[in-house]
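Replying to the earlier thread about multi-chain prediction with a worked example.

Input:
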Amino acid sequence: MKRYAIGIDVGGTNTKFGVVDSDGNILTQDRILTNSDAPVEQFIKTLSLKLKPMIDHYGGVENFVGIGMGAPNANYYKGTIEYAANLKEWKGVIPMADLMEKEFGITTRLTNDANAAAVGEMMYGVTKGMKHFITITLGTGVGSGIVIDGKIVLGCDGFAGELGHVTVRKGGRLHKGTGMRGTLETYASATGVRETVLEFLRENPNEPSLLRAFKEDEITSEVVYNCAVKGDAIAIRTFEFTGQILGEALAAFVLFSSPEAIVLFGGLTKASDLLLKPTRQAMEDNILTSFKGKVKLLVSTLKEADAAILGASALVW
Amino acid sequence: MKRYAIGIDVGGTNTKFGVVDSDGNILTQDRILTNSDAPVEQFIKTLSLKLKPMIDHYGGVENFVGIGMGAPNANYYKGTIEYAANLKEWKGVIPMADLMEKEFGITTRLTNDANAAAVGEMMYGVTKGMKHFITITLGTGVGSGIVIDGKIVLGCDGFAGELGHVTVRKGGRLHKGTGMRGTLETYASATGVRETVLEFLRENPNEPSLLRAFKEDEITSEVVYNCAVKGDAIAIRTFEFTGQILGEALAAFVLFSSPEAIVLFGGLTKASDLLLKPTRQAMEDNILTSFKGKVKLLVSTLKEADAAILGASALVW
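Result:
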C-alpha cells in the first residue's frame, strides 16, 4: 500500500523537500542549494543523494504514491519548467518530471511554486475549507496562486496566476529578469523594498535616518523593518509606499475573481501592520462599494517551507 | 415537454428578450425601454404586456423550462440585482427572480449581463468549444465575463468579473456612478471615448479637426469613428489612446487567468483596427515573453442582442 508522498519546493536559492503522510504530517525534511548556475542534471544528482536515503527509510519506492514538485514557471500540464527567469542555467524548457521519474522511479507532478503553496494553505492553513482565495508570496519575487471553486486556476496552458508581473506603475522600475517596467514584483518584493528605501535615501539626502549607518549592500528588507520598528521615518514610508502599490494591485485581483480572502506569504509579511495597514487601505480604496470591507486580508500561519512541501505533495494524493 | 426558454437582457437603456429553443434559435424577440427612473414593478408590468403573449403563442407556461435574465450587478446565487449604478431608481437590493416568478409563474435565474453574453459566446459564438476566455463588453460602460475551465467565474458571492472597475490610471477620471477614479470604464467605453476626444480638442485648440464642426453634445463615439475613418488626427489619436489603456488592462487579465482568447463585444468594436491595433500592441507590450503572441484578440460575431438573449436563456437549460 502506498502511504507516503514526497513534496519538493524548488526556489531560486534553496530547494526544500520532505516525506509527507496522507494526514499532512511532514515526517522528515531537508534542503539543498538549488544552484541553478550548474546544469539541471547536477541538481538531480545532489537531490538524489539526500532523497534516496529518505525513500529507503520509508520502505522504498513501492510505498510512495508520487513526487509533487513546486517550481518557478512550472507547467502542470506538461511537467516542464519553462523559461524561468530566476533559474539561471536552466534555460528553455526543462523536462523536470521526466528527469525525476528517470532518477527516482516515482511518478512526478509539477506545478508553479506559488500554486503549490496555495494548495498547502487550502488543505492545512488559514484558508482551510475556503473555495475562493488568492495567495500572494512576497519573497525575493512576488508569486501568486489563485483558487476558484476550490481549484487552482491554471489557464489554457498552465501559466495562469502570474500576478507578480502585472504592471502597476506605467514606465516604472525595470525588472531585469523580464525586461518589463513597473511590475508588482519590482516594488512589492524584498528586492523592491530595498530599491525603494535606497531611492528614498537618495532623494532626501538631508533627512536623518538610522539606515544611513548601513552600507548600501547591507540594506535588506529586514534591516528596513528593524529601523521602521524603531520609528525611522524613511523606513516607515518605505513600507507605506510598498503597501500602497500592493493594495492597489490586490484591488484589481479582487474585482477579477471576488475571493473570500487574500493570503500573504513570505519574508515581507514579517513587517506585519507596517505593511498590512497601508495595503488594506489601498485595497479598500480601489474596489467597488459592494466589495468594501468583505475581503479578508490574511497572513499565512504555515511555515513557508511547510506550506510549499505540503502543497507540492498534495499534487499526487 | 418543456421545449422553450426565455432569455432577457436588461440594459441601462433597453431590455431585450426572446423565446429560444434548445438548439439556440431565437424564435421571436422584442424590446422595451428599461426605464429605471420608474420603480421596478412598472418594468415588470411593461415587460409582461409583451412577454405574456409570446409565452401564450408558444403553448403557455408549461412549455417553458425557465427564464434566464442577464442584468447589471445581478447576483446568480441570490437572484437579486444589487446596487446597480446604472439603474437609477432600482435602489438597494432588488429581488428580481422572485418578482419575475410571481408575475410569470416560471422559474427565473439571474446573472450579470456580461456573464450572460460570455455564455452566449461560448455556446454559439467565436469561442464555441473554448474553455478559457474573457469577454469584454465595450458599450456605454465596460462589462466582463470570465470563463475558466468552461465555467463562468462567479467568485465567493456572485460578483466576480467587474473588470470595468479596475483602476488603470491612478487619480484619473472620476466615475460618477462609482465615485472611483481612473477606472477602465471611464476610458474604454463609448462615454470614455467621448470624454477623451473632448479633452483632446480642448488641449489642442489650434489643431484643426473635423470634430470642431459638431456641437459638444453631438459628439458620440460613432461620430469620432466617422471622423477617424476620414483621417482626422484627433479622432485617430482618441482610438489609439483608448486602445493603449484597454490593452494595458487586458495584459493584467491575461496574467491572471491565461485565457486562450479575449473577445470584445459592443458598440466600440465597430472602430475595428483603429481600436484593435493599439489594443493588441499595448497588451503584448505588458505581458511576459511566455504569453506573447499566444492570446487571441477576437471580436464577437454574434449580434449583441442575440448573444445576451442566448446567453441568458442558457442559464436555464
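DSSP finds eight helices and 13 strands in chain B.

Feel free to reuse this layout for your own posts.
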